[in-house]
Design goal:
There is one protein chain. By secondary structure, the chain is of the alpha/beta class. Helices cover 38% and strands 18% of the residues. The longest helix is centred in the middle third of the chain and has 18 residues, at 131-148. It is globular, with a radius of gyration of 21 Å. The relative contact order is 0.12. Bound molecules: S-adenosyl-L-homocysteine. Residues 113, 115, 117-118, 160, 164, 195-197, 218, 260, 262, 291, 293-294, 296, 336-337 line the site of S-adenosyl-L-homocysteine.
Amino acid sequence: MYNLYDFKIEKLEELLMTNYFQKKYRATQLFKWIYEKRVTNFDEMSDISLAFREILTRDFKLFIPTIFKKQVSSDGTIKLLLKMEDESLVETVLMRYNYGNVACVSSQVGCNMGCSFCASGFLKKKRDLTTGEMIGEVLVLDQLLKEEGENKRVTHVVVMGTGEPFDNYDNVLDFVRILNHPYGFAIGARHITVSTCGLTEGIRKYANEGLQINLAISLHAPNDKIRNKLMAISLKYNMEELMDAVKYYEKTAGRRVTFEYILLKGINDSKENAKELAALIKGTLAYVNLIPYNPIKELVYQRSDDKNVHDFLDTLTKCGVTATIRKEFGTDIDAACGQLRAKNEKEKV
Ligand code: SAH
């Protein structure tokens, strides 16, 4: 049985034409029913013949994850633990910025990247999420928003939840294409961000997709020595390779990346580190997003003092780097990546 949410429009056209001898526009009709009208039952699709609706009911499902746990923070952030068909638990977060409702979507069940500061990696990757399951994460948030007000929707999506998007490349790309498609979620490309820990083949491939979707790179260090300690992936792709891939992306896609940099007390947050970072990314058009660390009780890392955060920002700015400090959400509800899931999986066993 196919999950209809797994298909980007081109793939659905192909499947319906070759296997079901349908006209091409059938895929457009289905997209409009499931994404514009959010119909979840084939019987309601009144412009599709009864005969074909019966075939759809036989061969296709419209799988939407169930809410296993829901936490709401005092700032309105919603954190969900969603249950998939195989009982896998997946975290999805909704953050309310002044410019819109931002969904933070997970791309895998667990993560194998092994960043030493991150709770997502407490549980190794069990499997990739399908395109349809990622679509499901956004559909559930949209349903919750609709309960708050008829016109409320997810307006921005960041693929920054648990998992490494470029370790699940094809499913993630189909997912963002459905988000962006005018008959899909119709979310503007610049309102969608994919974040990678630095898989350089993925960055190069992504550069050639011809997409306007934003790319963020988790850098977190100004040199290989510090990065090797924080991120296992750094041992595979060093800083030089990573910067080469970034420059290739800038040249090929004609867009700049955002570097994410978590400030960890005493580890990567000195003025010298800021100067080194500025020198490292000189020659790219990149912009730096400084992230206050969300402490995890099992780990030794601490967040930088406010003064260090501001000094770091100041130093970058003086060196001509554009940088901002990321606003924090939901710190009262285990909002750090993977924390809620890790806790619940532990309770399950
Ligand atoms: N694997 C991808 C996407 C998931 S991580 C990537 O690495 O980019 C999304 C972002 O959250 C990354 O920048 C990650 O480093 C950061 N992050 C992880 N744990 C964090 C924590 N405890 N506090 C703040 N940011 C964290």
